[in-house]
Specification:
single chain; 324 residues; alpha/beta; Rossmann fold; Chorismate Mutase Domain, subunit A; 6-stranded mixed sheet; 4-stranded antiparallel sheet; 53% helix; elongated
Length: 324
């Protein structure tokens, strides 16, 4: 809970308030995704302060994933703290996490972001601020590297993705904890943050400390910096691919010549974006390369059947269709 005395402006409080200030909109209402942990709690307190100064509305959305005993009590506690911070409205949303085979972390994330969409629609807010830190970014990049996910994962999280805002991506986790200490806020500790069954926990508790020990301090900062650089490159390649795609794709068809003229990074994106935009199917890298082989390694292949999509090359044209 917050101290009855106004906290003094310590370096941690100043840094997080400044970070929040840079991403707040000019008007309207924003929500803070609040779990009660140190990261989101520091974000909520800083947002309440900065929004009041800027004449903005600031509320909170608390998601109860129903994955742990007592989760409703944790959500209720977070809601009470949000009200004490002056946040309004305070929305508590209970969700059901569907088991779709993508893993517990991804399944919970899907449910959580769907709830954020509902909260935005219900409240009329223009954005949801999330408390992802530089350490979260480093973990994301390392996990993407381990999975061989390519630049889509290595680029990490963006500070702004539609209505989702992440002002703390340049802030270390130790700073959010210090903010809570300085502000007299009692942060909740999620026991799942120490459960080694989760890959992210193993990265946080074992892998990153090992890298820091063996390669020297600053690994987390370096990984986050790498993500920022890759995001710039990836955004530029995405834009080039979209321009070329819209120029050459028509009625589910594109010529092999148009694809062959592009560098591999742009060509693969054109295939992936085209299939996603026009057929509603997302291709992984292996599937994308299989389609690209109809251009780069053409030797008379027949119909290429992939999950949810059918591709055939006829008279120098790649024809994409969705099976009945």
């Amino acid at each position: 809970m917050e101290s009855t005395c106004r906290p003094r402006l310590t370096p941690a409080i100043a840094d997080i308030r400044r970070a929040v200030r840079t991403l707040l909109p000019a008007e309207g209402l924003v929500l803070v995704g609040l779990s009660g942990g140190a990261d989101s709690l520091a974000l909520a307190a800083a947002t309440a302060f900065e929004a009041a100064r800027a004449g903005l509305g600031a509320g909170a959305v608390i998601i109860d994933h129903n994955l742990q005993d007592g989760s409703a009590d944790v959500a209720a506690r977070a809601a009470e703290i949000a009200r004490q911070l002056g946040l309004d409205p305070v929305l508590v949303m209970s969700v059901t996490v569907d088991r779709d085979g993508t893993g517990p972390e991804a399944e919970a994330r899907t449910a959580r972001y769907a709830a954020f969409d509902d909260a935005l629609e219900h409240s009329g807010a223009g954005g949801v601020l999330l408390g992802h830190t530089l350490d979260d970014q480093a973990e994301t990049v390392l996990l993407g590297l381990a999975r061989g996910s390519g630049p889509t994962s290595l680029r990490g999280m963006a500070a702004r993705t539609g209505p989702i805002l992440r002002p703390l991506l340049g802030i270390r986790r130790v700073t959010t904890r210090q903010f809570c200490v300085d502000a007299g806020l009692d942060a909740w500790t999620d026991p799942q943050n120490f459960d080694p069954r989760y890959a992210r926990v193993r990265v946080r508790e074992t892998v990153l400390p090992l890298l820091e020990n063996e390669l020297g301090p600053g690994i987390g900062v370096a990984l986050a910096r790498t993500a920022e650089a890759l995001r710039e490159d990836s955004d530029a390649l995405d834009e080039l691919a979209h321009i070329a795609l819209h120029k050459h794709w028509a009625n589910g068809e594109i010529t092999a010549v148009a694809l062959a003229a592009q560098p591999a990074a742009v060509r693969q994106r054109m295939i992936r974006f085209g299939v996603e935009e026009h057929c509603g199917v997302w291709l992984n890298r292996g599937q994308t390369l299989a389609v690209a082989a109809l251009v780069t390694d053409w030797h008379g292949q027949g119909v290429l059947s992939l999950p949810g999509i059918r591709v055939v090359r006829q008279d120098g044209v790649l024809i994409f269709s969705v099976p009945a």
